[in-house]
Amino acid sequence: MNTTDDAPEARFAQPFSPLPENTFDGLALAKILLRATPAGALATLTRDAGYPFASLTSVATDCDGAPLLLISGLAHHTKNLRADARGSLLLAEGGKGDPLAHPRLTVVGRLAPTSDPRARARFLRRHPKAALYADFPDFSFWRLEPEAAHLNGGFARAADYPGDAMLADVASAADLFAAEESLLDEINALPRERRGGWARAAGADPALNWRATGLDSEGLDLAAPQLTARLAFSRPALSPASWREALAEAQNSVPASG
Question: What does the pLDDT read at residue 114?
Fold first, then answer.
């Protein structure tokens, strides 16, 4: 892959400068946006003039939280990335009313193709219909390595984070990720009402038919028709046993309705 001719020191320069008196702790919100937002605006740099070029793309996350994309080599954004790997991804919660009143997260970094089977599996669990074209010759999976992130959580609720702050511990959770498929199968085999309880704990409508699409040391990803949700844990869980405990704690921490 071609790279830019930036000076070496510029490659690792912090794209965002932390706010001098920023007391809002939005890291948990930023991670929820990262894990739960199924589509975002991908901005790349045009090959000819270097202008920002934004396009809409489906998004999933790797085990550590790094964004995963499935993009076509025929698309302008892919051609741009092959010439200059730098890019950014805007993830917005959306909702009723003023769109600027809802939280959004911008992640910047460098993107590269990945052939990791786990990345493929995680993306297709989040976007099962993408299996129809995932094996087309011009399509490939890409991973964004976060270098920095900016959260706008609403009025006076902004924060900047280094890229590694957005990522979960992977090295210490090898046993958990080895059991990911079996744990997800176990969850999805449970009654709909049980899965709805986890959705409710995540702030979503428990009446919908939710399925588990991914897990990691910090929580559980859920999806229903046209919707996604993220159940975040209060503490990291690095083994299958501790993950089950953290899942139960997350659900029990929400008072029963009615």
Answer: 98
